[in-house]
Amino acid sequence: MTISVQNLLIERRYPFIASLFLLLLFVCFFILSTNTSQPPPLYRVLQPSSHPTVTQNISSTTATVPVLEIDGKKSNIATDRDLDDSGGGADLVFEWELCPGPLAVDYIPCLDNYKAIKSLKSRRHMEHRERHCPKPNPRCLIPLPVGYKVPVPWPKSRDMIWLNNVPHLKLVEYKKEQNWVKRSGDYLLFPGGGTQFKEGVTHYIQYIEKNLPKIGWGKRTRVILDVGCGVASFGGYLLDKDVITMSFAPKDEHEAQIQFALERGIPATLSVIGTQRLTFPDNAFDLIHCARCRTVVIFMGELSGGNPLLELNRILRPGGVFVWSATPVYRNDERDKKVWDGECSVNSRRVFLYAPLDGCISAIPLTETGSSYGWPTPWPERLKSKPASLSTEQDAERIFHEDTKHWSELVANVYLGGLGVNWSSVRNVMDMNAGYGGFAAALTDLPLWVMNVIPVNGPDTLPVIFDRGLIGIYHDWCESLSTYPRSYDLLHSSFLFGNLTQRCEMLDGAVEMDRILRPGGVVIVEDTIEILNKLRPILHSLHWSVNLHQQRFLVGRK
């Protein structure tokens, strides 16, 4: 007997009809799903329902997100859902998963690309410590260390941090005789010791200035670089003298040294002098410091050809000081003395990411009349003085001073009181599109520091930032930053994403912001309403609270 829908209806076999209908739907769904392309690893995009909400579309992995204890009260990291979807809505709803593996809590995509590192032909020049960014960018979220707590506030954090936030004890044992770091219960303590700081870092700083009074900490010398900084106690204590130090070291066997520095609230970045230029402009630093640098091996050895020392020469301001602090066994070594002699032809190029090291001495910049630039105005007048590296175009000086005034007024009238940010809990700040550094300049009276980032595809204003007595780096925001997760309390972006989305996806920028921002941290984005309406559903899907102010400022809290 032939089965037809008409016969089934006549015989009222409705359950069979319903089952057949569901079976057909399942077959259609299976065919469609198996013919679509696979999404990137650990990331899915779902089409929204008519009224999507975050809780309906976040994957079950978010249930493993730890709970923070704030002022004695437990609070989930992702709580508020105060986004008003009426202002544009979401075209897509995103579902996230945590990065896998036991090392995921400290994952740095461009430094932990083990597949690329394994395929290197050579490691003689520290190539394995340089950046090797994966393609495509990872789109998973970084889990928290077990027992993570709100960081110890500044200035107390200079001397102690929570062990659970940076649970690495290798340096405690390895450097126990040198007072780098010690454990005390739930804390890690930083006594201010170091390989060269036998009598403590404060005495060491005073000793340097006593032997070379022209240094003038905090007046003539404002911006310095600490090469191979350890746990950055040198830079941390110089903050008391109005000196801002860019501390840097590679991610190497000295476990988590830069992570310690950032958790302490001290400016620091991951980098290495290998085969590529550092991400700083020419003639940037007033002073460069290196403790226990063995020049034969590190700077002028057979393997390096002297290029690392020439690279430090490139970024040291003319008239600046190089402080080489050597252990006694190296101090009188004839080989170490001789390597400081030598000449090279002159060469000068603008700095870009991944540019190879030069083998020659960089040119000293000259004015239009052919004379060399003088030393910057003493700090703090230096902050608002005309920078020597400012463009010579007719309106450049006027534009610079207007930019300074603009940011001073905007920060005072909007940022400090109108956006709901608790600035007393903010220490580590990053300006993702810094321009002339006006945002950082307007915040200099607060107990915080700002890492100014100049995108590589925009105007090169980083020399101006250093001339003002501030610090910064070049970076391409289509890639991951060379820093640890949970490095910053506040990220600021002014009209960055419009240009960025012409080269890569906004989603990648949002994932990176989530990686480097601490739980409870804040993102302030100033941009067009079109950009903000595209960005806010992404941040909302990350379980951030998101608010819009004046149709111009988006404030997201992780």
UniProtKB/TrEMBL annotation:
Residue ranges spanning the membrane: these are 14-32
Matching CDD domains:
AdoMet_MTases
**Ribosomal protein among keywords:** no
Top-level taxon: Eukaryota
Q: Where does the UniProt annotation locate this protein?
A: Endomembrane system; Membrane
What are the recorded GO MF terms, alphabetically?
methyltransferase activity
Q: Which GO terms describe its cellular component?
A: endosome; membrane; trans-Golgi network
* Record's keyword terms, sorted: Glycoprotein, Membrane, Methyltransferase, Signal-anchor, Transferase, Transmembrane, Transmembrane helix
Membrane topology note? Single-pass membrane protein; Single-pass type II membrane protein
Q: Does the record bear Transmembrane helix in its keywords?
A: yes
Q: Which GO terms describe its biological process?
A: methylation
The cross-references to InterPro entries, in alphabetical order and at most eight, read: Put_SAM_MeTrfase, SAM-dependent_MTases_sf
- What is the predominant subcellular site recorded for this chain? membrane
Tell me which EC number(s) this protein carries. Answer: 2.1.1.-
Q: What is this protein called?
A: Methyltransferase
According to its UniProt entry, this protein's organism is Cynara cardunculus var. scolymus
Q: What is the lineage of its organism?
A: Eukaryota, Viridiplantae, Streptophyta, Embryophyta, Tracheophyta
